[in-house]
Design goal:
By secondary structure, the protein is an alpha+beta fold. The protein is built from 10 helices and 19 strands. The protein has 2 domains: about 190 residues, Response regulator (Rossmann fold, 3-Layer(aba) Sandwich); about 240 residues, PPM-type phosphatase domain (Phosphatase 2c, domain 1), CATH 3.60.40.10. Helix content is about 35%, strand content about 25%.
């Protein structure tokens, strides 16, 4: 068959696409159909060769890397067949090594396009090949080429060699243009990135400045909070007090204190606000400032009796009820707090206290096992108009009381096991022969050793009280 018999009109040209990727075959087929060509597809070279023999296509577009029969093998089979050799053949490949070009010439390919390709660019190649049919009578030359240590024998006509070389050049130009476009995009992206980096640097400077100010504010707030803690034992005969206070962060939600209400009564309390951070610490400081022994009509702890105008010590249950009224949870950003607050009568050695959802008080009598005094009540802020009950302990000389926050029993070791009430009781009992201050320190040291791997996850407050005699 000579060149005149080859149909070159895009409206009647029948193309065969040989591609093992269904997705890529679908994309290319749709583009070719939109360009006005009739298109058939084959999933590999073997099927493609069978379809060529069944019905001669005007042009073949074939991938190279395929199972069963490669594009090189298919092209060679077509070009070695005297009836088929004038069919223009385009090879598609992700390969771009010079040896691939020689292999294309060696098998007789007419055009070569590297992936990824622009479909419009490939359609232009198709149109160009159809406009310059392959002359079956052109003189074929044999060239021996050595490349990369391999020897190739190229048998191709001048037109075929020219087509492939032109296609290789056009392909290089296209790739170069893509590279230029990519470089332009990279340049724009680099300029944009430079601007973003400058903006980010400015924002980082502002953030660092804000962080420094925040750190200074937190340090100042922590110093204020520390300044409100007890500074010395109350000057009362027959009573010893010791305490430890260890926040898990800069600011704590715990607070403790003790002070004389008059010459006969000593008040002591531990407060534990829910959550951590600034909001919790501010609430704990506010509560600590309210719980002071200053005598006034608005005082929570000591008020002037309206009948006698003499100071009246407010019972612990009334103190808890008034705090619950003043600090409803919904008005405190859903914060609430637990509390144990008690008053010790130094004459009768009667300790009256209230517990609002707080940890039990431990009572230790000399030579005895610590006794856990459970007294339940609702945390402050949970329920409006809550009424609280008091618990009364009759102490004796040598008795000790331990008030603490839940950071003690809930401290966790590396296996997430809690310190627990049992161990707390054992440490209190272990330290009963030591001075009160040493006993409180022993308890704190034991908690810190327990959670030394993960560190404290909650504030720790411990307040110890010992009756030395009437």
């Amino acid at each position: 068959m000579n060149a005149a018999d080859v149909q070159t009109n895009s409206e009647t040209a029948s193309l065969l696409v040989v591609e093992d990727s269904r997705v890529q075959a679908k994309i290319l087929t749709d583009k070719l159909i939109q360009a006005g060509y009739e298109v058939r597809t084959a999933e590999d070279g073997q099927v493609g060769l069978e379809m060529i023999h069944q019905r001669r296509p005007t042009l073949v577009i074939s991938d190279i890397e395929m199972p069963r029969m490669t594009g090189y093998e298919l092209c060679n089979a077509v070009k070695q067949d005297a009836e088929l050799r004038t069919i223009p053949f385009i090879l598609l490949s992700t390969l771009s090594d010079p040896q691939d070009i020689i292999k294309g010439l060696h098998c007789g390919a007419d055009n070569y396009v590297t992936k990824p390709y622009d479909p419009d660019f490939l359609i232009g190649r198709v149109a160009s090949l159809l406009e310059t049919p392959i002359d079956d009578n052109s003189e074929e030359h044999q060239l021996d080429v050595t490349l990369g240590g391999s020897r190739y024998t190229v048998k191709a006509g001048r037109q075929q060699v020219l087509n492939l070389l032109v296609s290789t050049f056009e392909n290089a130009v296209e790739k170069n243009q893509e590279l230029l476009r990519t470089n332009e995009e990279l340049t724009l992206a680099r300029d944009q990135l430079t601007r973003w980096n400058e903006e980010l640097e400015s924002l980082n400077e502002k953030l660092e400045s804000a962080n420094n100010r925040m750190s200074e504010d937190l340090d100042a707030a922590a110093r204020v909070q520390q300044s409100l803690l007890p500074t010395a034992e109350p000057d009362q005969t027959g009573l010893s007090l010791a305490w430890k206070y260890l926040p898990c962060d800069e600011l704590a939600g715990d607070f403790l204190n003790f002070f004389p209400l008059d010459e006969r009564h000593i008040a002591a309390f531990v407060v534990d606000v829910s959550g951590h951070g600034v909001a919790s610490s501010l609430l704990s400081v506010t509560i600590g400032r309210l719980l002071t022994p200053q005598v006034s009509a608005s005082s929570l702890l000591v008020q002037a009796d309206p009948q006698t105008n003499q100071p009246r010590i407010v019972p612990p249950a009334e103190v808890a009820s008034e705090l619950n009224r003043r600090f409803p949870m919904e008005e405190q950003n859903d914060l609430y707090f637990t509390m144990v607050y008690g008053v010790l009568d130094l004459d009768s050695l009667e300790f009256r206290f209230v517990s609002a959802g707080h940890e039990p008080v431990y009572h230790l009598r000399p030579g005895k096992t610590p006794h856990e005094v459970e007294h339940y009540g609702t945390p402050i802020g949970w329920l409006p108009d809550e009424e609280y009950d008091e618990c009364v302990l009759q102490l004796q000389s040598g008795d000790r009381l331990f008030l603490y926050s839940d950071g003690v029993p809930e401290a966790m070791d590396e296996h997430m096991k809690q310190f627990g009430k049992q161990q707390l009781s054992e440490i209190i009992e272990l330290g009963q022969t030591q001075p009160l201050g040493d006993s409180v320190s022993l308890l704190l040291d034991s908690v810190q050793r327990w959670c030394r791997t993960n560190g404290l996850r909650d504030d720790v407050s411990i307040l110890g009280l010992e009756v030395n005699g009437q």
